[in-house]
Amino acid sequence: TRDDLKSFLVRFRQSLIDRTYKMATTCICYGTHLRDYIIGIGKNPKDVYVAQNTINIEKLIDNRSVSCSNRNFNHPIHFLYVGALIHRKFVMPAVEAVAELINEGRDIYFDIVGRGEEYSGLKEYIDIHQLTERIVLHGAKHGDEVKPFFENCDVFVLPGTGGLAINEAMAYSMPIISTTGDDTVPDLIDGNGYLLKSFGDKTEIKKVMSDFMELPDGEKTKMGNRSEQILRAKATLDNMTNQHILAVERAIEIRRSK
Question: Within the chain, where are the H helices?
């Protein structure tokens, strides 16, 4: 059947990928999830390196217009999403969650920065529910245009796929609400936010947002500071580069020993 053929092709593709991992002298992974998988299929742990996927967060931190450490949360919470407005990002369930919280009397806002095929549907929903002052579509922003959003909003939300936007938000000491994204995000969530179990689950997103708002302001501030601490420890550009260098040096060492 068609399903059987699809299943066979998926397994066959994965077998080729696994064979590539095993044949490689060393492997460089963007996160621990893939590292653990590669070791699990028999690769020597000494030959597998984690170069946490990242951007130049050192430059972002140095170029912040304002100090983002010790954020003040004594005001209505502004949630933020930055990225493409396409289906697999699941922005609509996040919008619906915020809309329900607003209807329940929560004093919150949702800033959405980006463009894509879902833009018109999101705009229609926001207009119909008369939420244009609370849920704002800002369109696409790039470079310095997006910086004020990271500096002035409070919590970054990633309800679907993605990853690097998390790094950028953490460089601005923002607490994080995110799915596993591209499977690198779990390495970056540890006391600085919430890891969503499902992609695009409105009920779960709403609960986590509500849980965050119930926290004392001091705990919210600690979450934001923790984001920057984790980023500096795990996801600097220097760290990523160094892990690539170590993997190459290890590969050379192995080849020379043969």
Answer: 2-23, 32-40, 57-62, 91-103, 119-128, 147-152, 164-171, 202-214, 217-234, 237-257
Report the distance separating Cα 249 and Cα 31, nearest Å: 20
Spell out a b/e string for 157-196, using b for 16 or more CB atoms within 10 Å of the CB, else e. bbbbbbbbbbbbbbbbbbbbbbbbbbbbbebbbeebbbbb
Provide the b/e sequence for 207-231 (b: ≥16 CB within 10 Å). Answer: ebbeebbeeeeeebbbbbbbbbbbb
Q: Give the C-alpha separation, 194 to 203, whole Å.
A: 14
- DSSP per position, 89-153: G-HHHHHHHHHHHHHTT--EEEEEE--STTHHHHHHHHHHTT-TTTEEEEE---GGGTHHHHHH-
Contact between residue 90 and residue 160 where contact means Cβ atoms under 8 Å apart: yes
pTM of the model: 0.91
Query: How many residues would you count in the chain?
Result: 258
Over residues 193-250, the pLDDT tens digits come to 999 999 999 999 999 999 999 999 999 999 999 999 999 999 999 999 999 999 999 9
